[in-house]
Each structure stands twice: as C-alpha cells, then as structure tokens.
C-alpha cells in the first residue's frame, strides 16, 4: 500500500471509531462471523444487550491491516467504546466475566439495545 492509501485507511478507521458508542472491528458480520474470536465478541455484546456497530475487516484490506496499526494491537476483533480502544476477544471475555465490561458500558453511558 502507498503512503496515501495507508493515510486514507487510517482516516476511515478514525471516522468509524468515533461514529458509534460501541464499535467492533471483526471478521465477518454479526449474523455470520468468520472466526471464533469474532463470534465470541458478538455473543458477549449481544448478551449484555448494548447497541453496537461493526466493521467487517474482510471487506477492506486497508482497514484490515490499518486497524492493527491504529490500535497498536495485533489481532482482530477489536472493541472500541466511545472512541477508546478496549481490547480484543480475550480481554472482552475477561472483562465480561469480572463484570468490568458492564461497568465500563454504564460508566460511559452506553445505551442498551431496545
């Protein structure tokens, strides 16, 4: 990718991150996740009942590679809450099990789906 393509992908990522209170960069879609980690992340968000948006990184190679640079995190899925990087699937699971994820959503004023 050229420097211009990398910059453009980073700009699209930044726009996406700030476009939803809860955003998950994942492989596939919520109805058809393309990896077990993405599936687990969706299950957690669905179980907590929060409104969220997703970006399918498989649809855009620039975003698929760029999100790893943007967050300085090497794996996908990646969860963002109110523009802040939270973590990947393992961190989401740990936070879910300890109640921290529910607390984070409450603290940030994230709306429940409904």
UniProtKB/TrEMBL annotation:
Keywords: 2Fe-2S, Iron, Iron-sulfur, Metal-binding, Redox-active center
Binding residues annotated for [2Fe-2S] cluster, in chain numbering: 35
InterPro entries the record matches: Glutaredoxin, GRX_PICOT-like, Monothiol_GRX, Monothiol_GRX-rel, Thioredoxin-like_sf
Tagged with keyword Cell cycle: no
Superkingdom: Bacteria
Domain Glutaredoxin span(s) in chain numbering: 22-86
Gene3D superfamilies referenced in this protein's UniProt entry, alphabetically: Glutaredoxin
GO molecular function terms attached to this record: 2 iron, 2 sulfur cluster binding; disulfide oxidoreductase activity; metal ion binding
Keyword set includes DNA-binding: no
Cleaved signal peptide residues: none
NCBIfam families cross-referenced by the UniProt entry: Grx4 family monothiol glutaredoxin
Similarity comment: Belongs to the glutaredoxin family. Monothiol subfamily.
Full protein name: Glutaredoxin
Species this protein is from: Alterirhizorhabdus solaris
